[in-house]
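Example complex used in Figure S2.
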Amino acid sequence: MSLDTVQMVLVTVLTAATPLIIAALGELVAERAGVLNLGVEGMMVFGAALGFAAAMETGSTLLGALAGAGAGIGLAAVFGLLTVGLAANQVASGLALTILGLGLSGLVGAGYVGLKREPAPLLHVPGLSDLPGVGRLLFGEDAFVYVGLGLAVGVSWFLWRTRAGLILRAIGDDPVATHALGLPVRGVRFLAVLFGGACAGLAGSYLSLAYTPFWAPAMTAGRGWIALALVVFASWRPARVVAGATLFGGATVLQLHAQAASLGLPGQLLSALPYLATILALVLLSLGRRQGGSLAPAALGRDFTPHR
Amino acid sequence: MLRTTLGACLGALLLLAGPARAEDKLKVGFVYVGPVADYGYSFQHDLSRKALAEALPDKVETTYLENVPEADSERAIEKLARSGMGLIFTTSFGFMEPTLKVAKKFPKVKFEHATGYKRAANVSTYSARFYEGRYVCGKIAATLTKSGTVGYIASFPIPEVVSGINAFMLGAQSVNPAVKLKIVWVNTWFDPGKEAEAAKALLAQGADILAQHTDSAAPLQEAEKQGKLAFGQSSDQYRFAPKAQLTAVVDDWNGYVIREAKAVLDGTWQSHDTWGGIKDGMVVLAPFTNMPADVKAMAEDTVKAIASGKVHAFAGPVTKQDGSVAVKEGETAPDPMILGMNWYVKGIDDKLPQ
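Predicted assembly (662 residues):
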């Protein structure tokens, strides 16, 4: 394999991981605040539809991405009103949100099926982007990839280096105690849910604007569910989300390359590789923290109604 | 009280008048597994519904149900049968058992099930010989490839897909016996992201022409992005990749659907199995684009030769990967062999997942 082929593979891995990273980071923040939103797939696919529609109407990828994030926020707001505001069951509401998102996306996208547009532009830094072997990987991606990685740093910094992040995590662990301290439990949870929605919508618009620049019903093909699993896999830590998404994306892409290179390995084994890798990583992770308890936010999935 | 009785009587009268009027018109229902806007399989079927409505506007009335999950299809099919349909097309393999169940309850309604193999007195089956189109694609690919390597994105190792790969390879070998075919199984019918990744992998491994047996236009677009060539799937996908699409194997059900509706109207409809190809107009190749005139002429001649029966994709000698002879010289593969194909032809450098 030449250096350029290796770089090509790495670029594919990174772009395949990007929608997972963005969507999982959003869900991570929501779950850190104690809200389990199973509607990621629905928000993602609605973001893909609305993002593509907006980009087609305005001709701007940026506006498309913003519309995608907006679509996610819209659905998340409905979810937030139900679960945070009215203390409805989070699991049931989240599943309903997925179905709603799939339906709405079909409705919005109906007029845009079969259209195509240019993919989001790639960064080009004269000199740097043309460096052999690494230029395209480091300096020649589209904006979504950098946003995803930046988001990981930002979320990590916010959760562990700011007061607001500390409050959010505390609420996710014990809403009753934080409420007693006078902290706005429901307000913070609602905002965290909205952030999760924005990320899921943005991840969806990445699919329809940059990765495969067209709209097709249900084009997210289960990536929202993988993002959900990634949050658990990453034990609610942003850096591990990036690592996990890269591992999962990497295993998927590498098995396709292995098939294309006719390595002669059985196809089913290769297809199972990403999942095997995930299980292995989970086992290693749990071995590493034998003494600790569960890493999940203590109040994850529990609704909270303040006593007045 | 009087008023409600009167209303009920009027309603009953209207109901009685309803079927009387509908008797002149044949109601034809369609059940799709996907959205009509998928620009692929269900889309092509809906084109045939529209063509039927246009061809016999005074005699038929059409309805469709889209996005019908296979597990829940019995209810949908029964709903159509109950609403006075005379002919119902159930267009996905998974609708097979539900169609038969409903057909038993409604013996007067005629059913047409696509791609299945179980029939009944009022259930016909129909499918298309897609492999014929793939044979033509193989010839084009082998003529145009510069690297000598063609990539093939496959969904699941079922006979329909395997016979498509074999027909493609045999077509390619008829032009250039040394041509290489790289196959990637993605284990999905529809996942644009994964299909694009498979396309990238194949292009990175030296393929310069892509063929696919999955449903999205993502591989075509990837080929276009990298300045390579590819074939569309199910439907003419030229709009997605005007610089990359060579042609596409298009399912054309128009003729068949209209013919069956006419047979029901004439009272000549009978349960039967149809497996039509290029000759019957069920398999059509989208316009040949992005190729020199002589290649285009070669492709058009091949289409004609298949239609006239002069060329058969599985004309002997056909040798299996393990060296054994599948079809002897001078013979052609019988239909049951093609319908149950679970082996690769010689020259394919891949192990078939079992």
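Chain A has one domain: 3-288. The longest helix of chain A spans residues 3-32.
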